[in-house]
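Ticket opened by: R.M.
Priority: normal
Category: complex prediction / small molecule

The reporter submitted a protein together with 3-methyl-2-oxobutanoic acid and asked that the result be attached to this ticket for the collaborator who will pick it up next week. Submitted input follows.
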Amino acid sequence: MDKIYIFDTTLRDGEQSPGATMNHNEKIRLARQLETLGVDIIEAGFPAASQGDFKAVSAIAKTVQHCQIAGLCRALPADIDRAWEAIQHNPQARIHTFLATSDIHMKYKLRKERHQVLEMVEAAVKYAASKTSNVEFSAEDASRSDWDFLVQVFERAIKAGATTINVPDTVGYIQPQEFAELIQYLLTHVTNSHKAVFSVHCHNDLGLGTANTLAAIKAGARQAEVTLSGIGERAGNVALEEVVMAMDVRQDFYQVTTNIKKDQIYPSARLLSLIIGQPIPPYKSIIGANAFAHESGIHQDGMLKNRQTYEIMTPESVGRQEEDMVLGKHSGRAALAKRLKDLGYSLDEEQIDIVFAAMKKLADRKKEIFIEDLEAVVMDEIFRIPDKFRLEYLSAISGNMSIPNAVIKMYVDGEERTVSDFGTGPIDAVFNTIAKVVGRHPSLARYSVNAITGGTDAQGEVTVKLQENGKTAVGRASDADIIVASAKAYLNALNRLVKREEDMVCAKL
Ligand code: KIV
Ligand code: ZN
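Result attached by the on-call engineer:
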């Protein structure tokens, strides 16, 4: 059986999804989970894009040892240098360089003729290959490119040293049958196609990402570029879980395998959701809350008689378990440390102490503590960026007989401030008060609350998106009290806005 390489680009294309920005520590944590999941290649970022991206890619390249780490770069020497500088410490570093090949991109974006694009591809791949033998070349907007021109481009790229050739459906335009024909055409007409792995990278603008990827695999592509939950530019990329499980459930049809540890699929998607503060939609295949729920009587009856009547895979096979209580009021530090280790967190003693203290506080307010609660606490306490603005204390008053009011004690660069203000509701009062303290008035582009687990004592996970001077930042936090969670999420977003401004200043220097 042929192996399909799973190339995960959650940290690069996925991070380009609106509101999905991750901080440095969150990126490293997710990369380590992708390693546990068993992806073959992690595209860790676009090192030339910003100082923050460069640092995150370098750290991931050093931390993750069992996956290839790819750095994306345009077909320009300076970009290639920067990518290589970031990834070189990984034992299996991959330079991923790209250039557009469709007439529309060449004419309007690149302002280049075909012969110039061919020369650029050759030069870029040769330059990349002078640094490593692991070079991927992508023809951006390949699906709208002239097929014979693509043949020429890929032949040149392989001759120059590319070992992986990627065929992106950049704008989610191609149809499954057509994509299969394109892949077959390339495999038969590119004279040196046997010297490279052919890869596909599909976007979901028409909702065809999975169908297109699978059609290409059936036609001979051997690498699939995917993201967790399908996050990515515009309508997103193809979802890892859909492609992997389709190939697994229908192995009889595809006759291929992957290295993915299926029982890590749900924990990985759940971690991503926690990091970016966006809940998994309930109707999402494989990982959504309803994906294994049987509502109709006929279905329930069938399930009781034989699960296979309505279940083509089991929830356990993708790592979904019944809600599992992890800690109670009387659980000890050792039990917590073991649970954290089992979940894949390698925290030092001091970090375990911090999580333990936060869990004890939570256990005073919430009867049962689940894995989701524990992960939310770890995210908030350990992986958040160092805070310029930090909440110390909050009190909010609301009700239909009083004017909503908040009093907040917080720290700004370590200096204590206590301020009070009013609002149209308690959340508005809290946000107005914080804005007064920090002297900034970003607009609130999004606000959402999501219960982390079931029960009226569930922790609320709040996501806040702020906009100021053309920049946006998403903040996220959880707490058993949603007003406190909202304040923390607002501060988290403000801290990210500040961090982003600092990064931009660094990039200019
Ligand atoms: O969609 C696309 O074309 C890309 C390339 C950079 C691979 O993301
Ligand atoms: Zn893409």
